């Protein structure tokens, strides 16, 4: 645990924001989406007031933390040679690193800002799904929502496991789910 830093005023705002995002990423990875905001502020070495000045609520903080995740998915999906398998592999890798990412997506019914993130991920999946269906690699009846459900199922399993077990469990779960998707 880090000690609280001396208040350096406005000059420290950018550094505090970076520290908060880093601490939140670690806390979300280990504790899930409901990680203590007080613990995040303590780990970042700032007071709760600083946390709330930058991020007025949990969703704002989570969106900042996981913006890189969604950006990486969008960059991968934009690559012409990328496939649905590549996109699902990256989503799974992100889930193994932090099941809180999927917790955040799952909480989308509660906040329209999260719904926008889910819609972005769904759109990415739909684009790659159509190509995979045209190639005959994925059953025609499979939807992007089905794929999100599969990811959520795997995330639920991973949330109840240790970080060391997550990679192998994710691989085993996909091995069981893939035949239902590919027909």
UniProtKB/TrEMBL annotation:
Residues 36-55 bind DNA. PROSITE patterns: HTH_TETR_2. InterPro entries: Homeodomain-like_sf, HTH-type_TetR-like_transc_reg, HTH_TetR, Tet_transcr_reg_TetR-rel_C_sf. The keyword Transcription regulation applies. Keywords: DNA-binding, Transcription, Transcription regulation. The keyword Membrane does not apply. It holds the Pfam family TetR_N. Residues 14-73 form the HTH tetR-type domain. This is Helix-turn-helix domain-containing protein. It comes from Dactylosporangium cerinum.
């Amino acid at each position: 645990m880090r000690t609280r830093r001396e208040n350096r005023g406005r000059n420290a705002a950018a550094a505090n924001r970076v520290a908060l995002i880093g601490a939140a990423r670690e806390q979300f990875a280990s504790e899930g989406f409901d990680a203590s905001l007080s613990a995040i502020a303590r780990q970042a070495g700032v007071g709760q007031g600083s946390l709330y000045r930058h991020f007025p609520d949990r969703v704002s903080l989570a969106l900042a933390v996981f913006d890189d995740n969604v950006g990486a998915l969008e960059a991968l999906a934009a690559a012409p040679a990328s496939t649905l398998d590549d996109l699902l592999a990256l989503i799974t890798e992100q889930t193994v690193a932090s099941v809180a990412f999927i917790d955040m997506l799952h909480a989308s019914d509660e906040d329209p800002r999260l719904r926008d993130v889910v819609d972005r991920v769904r759109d990415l999946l739909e684009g790659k799904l159509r190509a995979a269906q045209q190639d005959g690699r994925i059953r025609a009846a499979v939807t992007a929502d089905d794929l999100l459900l599969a990811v959520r199922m795997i995330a639920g399993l991973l949330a109840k496991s240790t970080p060391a077990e997550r990679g192998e469990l994710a691989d085993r779960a996909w091995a069981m789910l893939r035949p239902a998707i590919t027909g």
